[in-house]
Write a structure and sequence with these properties.
Blueprint: H1 2-38, E1 47-54, H2 61-80, E2 84-86, E3 89-99, H3 104-117, E4 122-124, H4 129-142, E5 146-148, E6 168-170, H5 175-189, E7 194-200, H6 204-216, E8 220-227, H7 235-242, E9 248-250, H8 255-267, E10 274-276, H9 283-289, E11 297-301, H10 305-308, H11 312-325, H12 331-350, H13 355-363, E12 368-370, E13 373-377, E14 383-384, E15 388-393, E16 396-402
Parallel strand pairs: 1-3, 1-4, 4-5, 5-6, 7-8, 7-9, 9-10, 10-11
Antiparallel strand pairs: 2-3, 11-15, 12-13, 13-14, 15-16
Keywords: Signal
Family: Belongs to the leucine-binding protein family.
Protein name: Branched-chain amino acid ABC transporter, substrate binding protein
């Protein structure tokens, strides 16, 4: 009887001990899994997966398709030269390109797919601020950096506490700088003193630029009007501007509406300079406005063909772009091209294709030799870089001015 009890107790202790060991193992396994999940995405094998979240259709499709060409061209060059140097070993880039359809909800979904399902090491995109902002929570949760070639709203890279979003960067300047540049150009270069503002109020892009311009313009703002994406008829607003004896119109927005504004202004005999932003840097602007109407048109841009001719890196890019796509290199292709090489630079500086390490590498970019000029990422994850104002005459670029 005693022997039986002893054996029973021994058995119980043994089973309990095994259970404890198994439970402990499960806990440590859980810790290990959690650690892996919280350490970001890494490259596997001989390739580095880079996600591309762009507006390839919808209202901003023109920008996204330009960017796609820039990314693909840069990737082709990098891979042709052996790939990215990761701690002494060359790895080629594999692009995973998805269309967010210029939709905030789709952009958020695309970011989640790229980060969680495709396990990319970094994301290039989006083109627009609204789509990019929608993607931030999913990118941050997965610890995958997103580098937007062109999201310009000042708050895009910032948290509510004013600190930088940890996994969000941009390769362009932000609206306060761009709007201020437009204000200086009209006042100092065009000698404009009475200006009307006509801005897109359906995006942070348009409202942000209008606000920055109005804060920094030294002359008089005689009228401010807003439109919504998709609007077609601007005649009533432009007629009211014409009656106010203005020297210029500041019109920040995208080419789809600004092209119509230019066309309708010229048709009614309103021939004052129309100054806008980089959202006008698309060939479709002239197609919509009509070449004969597109004179005395100016817009701020991070990439000007005439300014770029003085930059050997840009000259090489423009020649290669024309050979590949049989057209002149547009602004948004240049920005995306730079973005791709910036990610390569971040990987090589950190000697790692881990998404968290790439994030660290992006924060360290200083005097990067880009086709859009020397680029330095500041503490708010914004790009410090040159800016120019490009001029159109009869639908053709007729000159550009560097603004300091």
């Amino acid at each position: 009887m005693k022997v039986g009890i002893t054996m029973k107790k021994s058995m119980i202790k043994k089973v309990t001990g095994i259970a404890t060991i198994l439970a402990s193992a499960a806990i440590f396994a859980g810790c290990s899994t959690a650690k892996t999940a919280s350490s970001g995405n890494d490259a596997t094998g001989n390739t580095i997966k880079i996600g591309v979240n762009l507006e390839l259709s919808g209202a901003a499709g023109g920008y996204g398709n330009q960017m796609k060409q820039g990314v693909e061209m840069a990737t082709s060059e990098i891979n042709k030269n052996g790939g990215v140097n990761v701690n002494g070993k060359k790895k080629k880039i594999k692009l995973i390109i998805k269309d967010n359809k210029t939709s905030t909800s789709t952009s958020a979904s695309v970011a989640a797919q790229l980060a969680n399902n495709d396990k990319v090491s970094a994301i290039i995109g989006t083109a627009t601020t609204n789509a990019g902002t929608a993607a931030i929570p999913n990118e941050t949760k997965a610890k995958v950096p997103a580098l937007s070639p062109s999201a310009t709203d000042p708050d895009y890279t910032l948290q509510k506490n004013g600190k930088a979003q940890p996994y969000v960067f941009r390769a362009c300047y932000q609206n306060n700088f761009q709007g201020g540049t437009g204000a200086k150009f009209i006042y100092n270069n065009l000698k404009g003193r009475r200006v009307a503002v006509l801005a897109d109020n359906s995006t942070d892009y348009g409202t942000g630029l209008a606000k920055a311009f109005k804060q920094q313009f030294k002359g008089k703002i005689v009228a401010t009007q807003y439109f919504t994406a998709g609007d077609k008829d601007f005649n009533a607003i432009l007629t009211s501007f014409k009656n106010k004896k203005i020297d210029a119109i500041y019109a920040p927005g995208y080419y789809s509406e600004i092209g119509l504004i230019i066309k309708q202004a010229r048709q009614m005999g309103l021939n004052v300079p129309i100054v806008g932003s980089d959202g006008m840097a698309d060939a479709k602007l002239v197609q919509i406005a009509g070449a004969k109407n597109a004179s005395k048109i100016y817009y701020t841009t991070p990439f000007s063909q005439t300014v770029a001719e003085k930059n050997p890196t840009a000259v090489k890019f423009m020649k290669a772009y024309k050979a590949r796509y049989h057209t002149e290199a547009p602004t948004f292709s240049a920005l995306a091209y730079d973005s791709t090489y910036m990610i390569k630079d971040a990987i090589e500086s950190e000697k790692s294709a881990n998404s968290v390490k790439i994030t660290k590498g992006l924060t360290k970019i200083k005097n990067f030799d880009g086709v859009t000029g020397k680029i330095t990422i500041d503490k708010k994850h914004d790009a410090s870089k040159p800016i120019a104002v490009e001029q159109l005459t009869n639908g053709k670029v007729s000159g550009s001015t560097s603004i300091k």
